[in-house]
Design goal:
Blueprint (H helix, E strand, L loop, with lengths): L3 E2 L7 E2 L1 H27 L2 H27 L10
Antiparallel strand pairs: 1-2
């Protein structure tokens, strides 16, 4: 497993499991939001569940790779000290 160095913090790395944990916790919140919005629009828990279910599968993968890409960047990180 390859960990990415955390820019600006010597000896600290962003581990893949941290990226995965952030991905899953964010998707839980975002999928609940999608479910509520879908329910408000459609009035159907079946449709809202279908929309949220499809959305969670695609966006977990998209977010994970997005997070890994951002972990490689130093842009926007300041030096401490």
């Amino acid at each position: 497993m390859v960990d990415l160095p955390l820019p600006g913090t010597a000896g600290t790395h962003v581990q893949r499991r941290r990226s995965l944990a952030k991905t899953l916790t964010w998707r839980t919140v975002a999928t609940a939001d999608t479910f509520v919005i879908s329910y408000v629009i459609t009035g159907s828990t079946v449709w809202a569940g279908s929309i949220a279910g499809i959305e969670v599968l695609t966006k977990v993968l998209i977010y994970y790779f997005h997070e890994r890409a951002w972990a490689r960047l130093t842009w926007g990180l300041g030096k401490t000290g």
